[in-house]
Amino acid sequence: MTDTPDPYKGYRGRGRELLKRLGARVWSDCTITTDTGEFSGIILPRSEQADDRHIVLKMNTGYNIGIAVERIQSIVEHDYKEAHYKIPEQEFPFDPAKPNVTLLGTGGTIASRLDYRTGAVIPAFSPGELYGACPELADICNLETKKLFGVFSENMGPEQYLITAREIAKQIENGVAGIIIGHGTDTLHHTAAAMSYMLQDLPVPVILVGSQRSSDRPSSDAAFNLQCAAQSAAHGELAEVLVCMFGPTSDRYNLLHRGTRVRKMHSSYRSTFRTLGDTPLATVTPEAPPEPLRRDFTRRDPERKLNLYDVFEERVAIVYYYPNMQPDIIESLIDNGYKGIVIAGTGLGHVNKPLYEPLRKACESGVQVYMTVQTLWGYAQMYVYDTGRDLMELGVVPLANMLPEAAYIKLGWALGMSDDAERVKELMLTPVNGEITEREQYNAYVVLQGGLPEVDAFLHDHWR
Amino acid sequence: MNRPDPHTNPHPQVRDLALARELIVHPESWTPELFRKMHFMGGLEIHQQVATRRKLFCRCPAVPMPHEPAAARVYRHMRPTLSEMGTYDGTALMEFKTKKNVIYELIDPVSCTYEMDDTPPFLIDEEALRKSLAIALMMNCKIIDELHVARKQYLDGSIPTGFQRTAIIGLDGWIPYRGRRIRIRQISLEEDSCREVNDVGHEITFRTDRLGFPLLEVVTEPDARDPWELAGICRLLGDIMRSSGMVRRGMGASRQDVNVSIGGSTRIENKGVSRYGYIPRLTCVEALRHKALLELRDELRGRGLNSIEAERHVLDGAELGFAKRSVGLAVLRGWRGLLDWRTQPDFHFVDELRGVVRVVACLDRFPYVYCEHDRADWALPTERWSELRRRMNVGDDDELALVVGPENDVATALDEIIDRCTQALTEAVPKQTRQALADERLTRPDGRRLSGVQTDFERVLPGADRMYPDTDHPPRAVSRDELGRIDDALPEPLWERRSAYRAAGLPVDVVRTLSRERRPAELFEELVTECPGVDPVLIGVTLVQTARHLRREGLLADIGPELARPVFAAVEAGLLAADAVPRLLAEYGARLRGEPGLDHGALIEEILEDYRRLPDDELRGVVSQVHRAADGEGPREPDKRGRYLMGRVRERIGWRAPGRKLEELLAAGLAKA
Q1: Residue A415: CATH number of its domain
Q2: Is-catalytic flag, A185?
Q3: What digits encode the pLDDT tens for the residues A85-110?
Q4: Cβ within 8 Å, pair A219-B117
Q5: Beta strands in A11-91, from DSSP E residues, in sequence order
Q6: Cβ separation of B464 and A116 shorter than 8 Å?
Q7: Last residue of a domain, one of A251, A283, A308
Q8: Which of A37, A66, A212 sits opposite B148 (nearest CB)?
C-alpha cells in the first residue's frame, strides 16, 4: 500500500468522475444500483491500463465483475474494507548443525505473492516469509536473506551487477556456505555471466534461481527451485556461478548450468534454461545434494581466496546481424561513443559487404569489435570463407563458441578491466569459466526434432 | 471477510418425525411431504460443455479423444497458496496434506503446452463467449458489462495450473417452473478440468483431452422444495440449454452437482450425478443422511458428551495379522455402538470415517478402517477385538476404530478419524463435497454392490477464499451492441414455445422434442409458415414421430428441409394426401437405401408423382369400379366389408387418396348398394 492512498486508485476519466460524484471510493463495501438491478460487493482498484468505462466490484462469491459507468445510478457505501496484504511470518528455525546460506533478492517471481485485488506483486522475502511459504527449506539449511533491489529481470543492468557482486564477496568473507540469488528469469543468464567474470576463484557455490510460474500459483516451480538451490548452495560440491532451474518440465530434478554457457530458450516453459554447446554440470533434487554429471568443475574449498573484479563499461552493444543491414547502424554506435561491439553474425560469423567500411572505421578508431554466431551453437570460424577472412582483416575478432549474451557481458567487463586494446582482447579470448570451450562434445548440440518416430518414442518414455 | 453462504438453510432441526434410521430403510416412506416437513432445500450446479471448434483458452480443437493413447506424460505437484486474507483455504490445505504425485497424460492432437501449464492462456474463445451469453440471456440473466477472468483453485490436480480459469457472465436470472420462478444465481464460463484415469495411493493420473473445453456453470438458488422438484428443475435446465443448439451432447458433456440441506444442517455439494434419473433417490438419501447425523449429535449430547475424548495408539501390524503395515487404533470414549449408527441405506458412521481416511490419508486398501460392527467377510474376528479391548484397557462404553496402512499415513488417518468424530458433535453435518456413488461406483472395492445410489466423501467444501483474479488475462467488455445482436438471434424461450406447441394440439412427445431440439424446431416453424393450409400436427408428428420411426427402422437417418419442403408443399397444394406422408417417406428411405447413388431431388419428384393425389371424379370412378368388381365377393358384414373394399381400392391406387375421402366414397357406395 502506498503512504498516501488514492481513493480512486487506477480509475481515470469517466470512472473516476463517477466515483467522485457518487461519493464512493476504492474499498467501499457497497451496493451499486444500475438500470438492470443491484450489485453488492467491494469496489476494487482498477488496472491503470484498463478503460475508463467500468467500475470493478468483488462480489462475496469471490468473483470480480466490471459494471459499465453509464448504467450506474447510485452507489451506497455500507462499510469500508481496505485490504492490507501481509505474508504471514514464521520464525525460520536455526540449527547449528546446518550450513548457513544467504539468499540475495533482486526481484522476480521466485519469492513473491500476488496482491489479489490489484494484481500487484508483494515480495515474500524475509526468512520468516519464505519459511511460511516453503517450510521444507529449514530441513536443508539455515537461511539469511537480504533484499538488494526489487526490479524485474529486464531492469537488471551494470549497476545491479556491481552491487550484487560486491554483496556476494562480502557474504563469502562472512563465511557463508553458499549464496542463492533470487532473480527474474528473462535476463538470469546475463547476470549469471556477469557474476562469473566478476567473482573468480569462488570458494563456495553461487546459485542463481528464478521461477517460470509465479509462487501465487499452486503449480509454481518456485518452491521446487528454491529447495534445489538451497541444496546446491548448502551442500553442493560445485563452487561456481551456477543457474539452478528445471531439467524436464516435470517436477523431477533441476539442472545446474555453468553461468557462462546457459541461456533462456523458451518464453514460458519451466525447463527453459539449457546449457548450449556443452553439457550441464549436475542434477539436483529438493531432497539431496547435487549429483555431478561431469568431473571438470571447481570444487568447494572455503580456504580459496575469492577475487572480486567489480568493473563494467556500459558503452557496449550487441548487434544482431540481418540481411540488408545498413552501415548507419554501426556508424551510429561509433558516433555515440560506444567502446565495444559484439556482432551476432550469420553462419560461421559473417555480415554483408556494406558493413565492411563502418567496421573498418570502428576498429581503426579503437572500438573493440567481436564476432559471435547467431546460430548459438557452433564456433565463429572466420577463416573458412572469404567474408570471414575479410572481416578479420578489418579487425573483427572471432570469439569461438562464446554465446552472444555471454560475450556482450564479458566485453563490458573486460573494457572495465582495462583501457588497453591488447589486454582487453586477451581477456576476451581467455575463458574465465567455460565461456569458450576448446572442443564441442558429441552431445553438446541436442535439439531433438519432434515428429520423428524415434524422438516421439523417447518423449513418450521419459517425463516431459 | 464475512461471506455468508448464499445457500443457508434458515430452518431449525425438526425432531417430531420418525427417526432417520427407520426412514432410511423404508424407501416407500420417502414422499415429497416428508422432505418438505424436514425443511428440505435443494439447488443445482449444472456444468454443460458449450459446442465450439476450439478450447476456451488455447487453440486446440475441442474434440474428446477418450481412446487416443498418451503421447507423453508430465509429473507435477500442487502446493497451496495463501489466500488474499493470508491464510490457507481449507480444501487447499487438505489436498496438500494428501501429498499426491500428479501425472498428466498429453493427448497429442488435442493438448498443447497450455494444457501442460507451460504456456500462458490465449485470449478467451469468442465463439464460446457468444454462445454462453446467448444461453445466459435465455435464462433471463443480467449480463456482466465487463468480464473478469478469475482463478478458482483446485489442488486435487484435476487442472495442471492448480486453478480453473472462470468468469461470471450473468447474474440473477430465472426460469419458470410449475407456475413460479426458479432463480438462477449466476452463470459462469469456465475451462473444463481433466478426466481422472487412475487414483491409487499417492499417485493420481489425469488425461488432458477434455481439459480446457468451454464449460458453462449454471448455479440455481436452493428453490427446490423436495427431491422430485430438484430433478424436474434439473431436467428443465438441461432442456433449455439443449434447445439453444449451442451445447455439446453425449457422454460427459454435462454433469450436475446437487446441493442439499435440511432444517438444522448445512449445504452439502454432491458431485458426479450423471443422469437426472438418479437425482430423486440420491437427494433423498443425502437429506436423510443429514437427519441421521443431526440425530447422532442428539444421541452424543444425550450421553453427556460435550467434547471428544479420544486416544490414539500406533501398534505393530505384524502382531495383529497385518504384515509390513502399521496399525492405528482410535479409542473413542463413550461412543460405544455409534460407529454402527446408520447414515445411508448401506452405510454407517464408520463409513464417514472411511471416506475421509481414504481421501486425506491416501489409504487405498479397502476397507481402510475396521470396527467391531463390520459384517462383511473381511471383518476382523470378534476374539481379535476382545483381545484388543483387554490389552488396551478399553472401557465398556468406549468404541474402537482401527486403521491399517503405511506408518505416516496411519498417523494422518488417526488425526482425520478424531477430527471427523469431533465434527459429529460440533457441526453434526460437516461442510463437504461428496461424490455420488452411481454407475460403476455402485460396486464397492470389496465387490459388494450397493442397493442404490448413495454418497461418499470427496473433499472439504471450498470457500470463496479460493478465488483469485487471473493476472494473465485482460478484462473483456461486453458491449450493448454485441449483446443486442446475440439477443436478436435467440429462439423464443423454451417455455413459451412449449405452450404454443401444446396450444397447437401437438402430442406430448412432439412438444418435448421440438422444444429442446433446435433443428427440427426451426424446420417446424418454417414449414408451418410456408404451408398455412397444412395441419401443424401433421408437420410436428412427421418431424418427430415419423422421423424417429424411420430412424429406428434404419430407413432414414433424418428428415431435413430438402425432403420436408417439397413433401409439405405438395400437401399444401392438394397434390399429396396427408396420410400418404409417412408411407412416402418410408418408400423414399427404402429406395435410397437400395440405391444410395440416386439423385435425392429427382427421387423425391418421382415418388411425389407416384403418390400424386387423384382428382375427385377419377377417384369416384375407381371406387365404383371396385364396388362393381367386388359384387358378390368378400365379407358381407359392413365393417369388414368396408375394410375389404378399402384394401381393393388401395391395391389399385396406392396412397393417392386420403383415407377419410375414400371411406366417405366407399360408405356412400355401400349405402347405395
Answers
A1: 3.40.50.40
A2: yes
A3: 666 677 889 999 999 999 998 876 66
A4: yes
A5: 28-34, 37-43, 54-58, 64-68, 72-80
A6: no
A7: A308
A8: A66
The catalytically annotated residue of A9, A58, A264, A339 is A264
Other CB atoms within 10 Å distance of the CB of residue B249: 10
Residue B178's domain comprises: 20-267
Handedness of CA A341, A345, A349, A350 (dihedral sign): negative
Distance CA A10, CA A2 (A): 13
Closest to B206 measured CA to CA, from B154, B249, B250, B170: B154
Nearest to A260 by CA among A161, A322, A191: A191
Instruction: Please give the single-letter amino acid code of residue A444.
Output: A
Other CB atoms within a 10 A radius of the CB of residue A20 amount to: 13
Are the Cβ atoms of B118 and A133 closer than 8 angstroms?
no
B663 or A383: which leads in pLDDT: A383
| A298-354 tens-digit pLDDT | 999 999 999 999 999 999 999 999 999 999 999 999 999 999 999 999 999 999 999
Measured in angstroms, the CA of A451 and the nearest CA of chain B are apart by 11
Residue A270 near residue A249 (C-beta atoms within 8 A): yes
pTM above 0.90, yes or no: no
Contact between chains at B78 and A37 (C-beta distance less than 8 A): no
Q: Which three cell numbers stand for residue A18?
A: 463517477
Distances (CA, A) of A308 to A158, A188, B17: 15, 20, 84
Task: Quote the minimal CA–CA distance from A354 to chain B in Å.
Answer: 41
Q: Which three cell numbers stand for residue B138?
A: 435465455
Shortest alpha-carbon distance between residue A116 and chain B (Å): 6
Mutate to test the interface with A, among B76, B105, B219, B221 (most CBs of A within 10 A): B76
3-state secondary structure of A57: strand
Does residue A441 belong to any structural domain of this protein?
A: no
Residue B572 domain-assigned (yes or no)? yes
Residues A381/A348, Cβ–Cβ less than 8 Å: yes
| Strand A340-345 relative to strand A368-373, pairing | parallel
Cα–Cα distances in Å, from B313 out to B391, B404, B616? 12, 12, 98
CA distance B164 to chain A (A): 11
C-alpha torsion angle, residues A106, A111, A117, A120 (rounded to 10): 10
Sign of CA dihedral B16, B17, B19, B20: negative
Per the annotation, the verdict on A29 as an active-site residue is no
Among B427, B443, B460, the domain boundary falls at B427
For chain B, the first-to-last Cα distance in angstroms comes to 94
Separation between Cα atoms, residue B538 and residue B31, nearest integer Å: 40
Query: Look-up: residue for cell 533491489?
Result: A149
When mean pLDDT is compared over A208-217, A262-271, B568-577, the highest value belongs to A262-271
Q: Do A189 and A137 belong together in one domain?
A: yes
Q: How many CB atoms lie within 10 A of CB B619?
A: 19
Cβ–Cβ < 8 Å for A228, A289? no
Radius of gyration of chain A (CA): 26
What's the CATH number where A50 sits? 2.30.30.520
Substitution target in B83, B89, B98, B117 with the highest count of A β-carbons within 10 Å is: B117
Number of Cβ atoms within 10 Å of the Cβ of A365: 8
Q: Is the pLDDT of residue A206 over 70?
A: yes
Scanning every residue of chain A, which has its alpha carbon at the shortest distance from the alpha carbon of B167? Answer: A63
Residue B95 confidence (pLDDT) above 80:
no
pLDDT at B86: 55
Interface test with B, best of A44, A57, A63 (most B CBs within 10 A): A63
User: Which residue in A56, A220, A251 is closest to B148 by CB distance?
Assistant: A56
**A164 is written with which cell numbers?**
550484487
Looking at the fold, whether B48 and B144 belong to one and the same domain comes out as: yes
Of A185, A191, A272, A437, which one is the catalytic site residue?
Answer: A185
Start-end of H helices in B61-195? 90-97, 126-138
In this structure, the dihedral spanned by the alpha carbons of residues B173, B175, B176 and B181, taken in order and rounded to 10 degrees, is: -40
